[in-house]
Fold:
Amino acid sequence: MAIAKRVPAEANEAIDVTSHVDALDWPQITGELDSQGCAVLKNLLAPDQCRAITALYPDDGNFRSRIVMGRHGFGRGEYKYFSYPLPDLIAQLRPALYAQLQGVANRWNEAMGIDIRYPIAHTAFLKRCHEAGQTRPTPLLLQYEAGDYNCLHQDLYGEHVFPIQVAILLSEPGRDFSGGEFVLTEQRPRMQSRAEVVPLAQGDAVAFAVHHRPVQGTRGTYRVNMRHGVSRIRSGHRHTLGVIFHDAK
Structure:
């Protein structure tokens, strides 16, 4: 007998997420993705939506697995992967963001000489993942407390990888926590790594390159290798929603 999930109404209500996502300044966002490998999506979620998603964390009925980062050398802290069906807000947010990022992903692959192209609809891309055995949902909720951090890494999960992902800060800096900055590093061929610290407010998101992105050099376009993580939490508690567009094996 299936057990119904206990989901706060604010995290599962029918809202027009697509219109809100579409109204963001996508020319600026895509320009920053091209030039920096990341871009901030201001006020993607309202504070009550952030609190509603955070409130899901204690109920394991919403999730397929829990990862304690210290056991795997990933850092300190923990996170949980949502199970299907996703809460409505996340289920709407994922394809709405994908629809805006799909063109950037295809343009990046073309510039890097990668033959893979991504379909317009997220459902079609998920079908590709599932046919390859990548059937486990990847949206995740991360929880940190004082002393926790997330080592630099890449969220790949299988053969089929969408090259951009989104992280949404659910907690309020300065009130709920201190420290815990989102960090990206970029490794260019024959050069030292470049670090980027991305300041976020509650409800802001950052879209960023998962693995590689193209950069125009004096001798043509080349690939740079990207990693991301979170610096040490100095005090309090920090929650983040990770929106990954490919599923996992």
Q: What stands out?
A: The longest helix spans residues 88-111. The mean pLDDT is 93. The CA atoms of residues 180 and 231 lie 5 Å apart.
